[in-house]
Amino acid sequence: MGRLSDRVAIVTGGGRGIGRATALLLAQEGAHVAVLARSEDQVRAVVQEIGAQGLPRALPLSVDVSQWDQVQEAVTRVLEAFGRVDILINNAGIIQPVAPASRVDPQAWAYNIDINLKGAFFMARAVLPHMVEQKRGVIVNVSSGAAHHVITSWSAYCAAKAGLYHFTRVLAAELEGTGIRVNSVRPGVVDTEMQRIIRESRPEDFGPANLERFRRLKEEGQLLPPEYPARLIVWLCTDDAADIHGREVDIYEPEWRKRAGIPNT
Ligand code: NAP
Q1: 241 lines ligand 1 (CB under 6 A)
Q2: What's the pTM value of the predicted model, to 2 decimals?
Q3: Which of 85, 104, 155, 175 counts the highest number of beta carbons within 10 A?
């Protein structure tokens, strides 16, 4: 018996990276998982991987979280398939556009906010009525150190993640005493497609010092495997974390790593 037997989870951005690792771990803990992303082939592959391990039934959904009609349709499909929603992992995210605000593409800037911030709100808005009725639920928003640090050429990403951090706090206050827990996670610098895109940014857009910093982290082997933040996220969904609500959980803090069973190396 896993710690999340028979719970129903939705993981946005579940097709690769941190979301994929989280979807697999949730399933290994006994949850039914709906795996959402825009790339149909990637969500199908993750669901197949879950099936091949003989884990509970998972559902692939090709969805753009920035589109309210698609989000509503996806949550309806999850309810039809599994009858409830207990866990929402708002993990879908993009880094682009990478350029100074003075010359960044305005539509690309807005689309970043649409996915990283508005998408997380849309998902929460769509599942919360069901969680409120159940008097139970867990929402984990995948934030970033960029919510707090100034990183030049990332104005959209930094603003979106800062917004997500504060949205989490407001939501947690609204849901106090309802049986629904909401937290955000800072997953660290993780070895995913997003980091590859960052390292391949043009120096004239990102700046040589920023580029050098992220390339060096990779060369020095300092990127975390996606399974580490996945463990932190999944731990937050279990009753072992029943006391955690309205917090920002940073993977680099030893207290959280210890509680979530993440190695210190
Ligand atoms: P990744 O490998 O690029 O995965 C991002 C996932 O989000 C993909 O499955 C992608 O699939 C999905 N996605 C993007 N836009 C979407 C949309 N509009 N609708 C639905 N799904 C969408 O990146 P990752 O590193 O695992 O990132 C996961 C989360 O961690 C992000 O929120 C990111 O900001 C955060 N984070 C990452 C790091 C890091 O170092 N990697 C650090 C701090 C925070 P499609 O493109 O197919 O839609």
Answers
A1: no
A2: 0.98
A3: 85
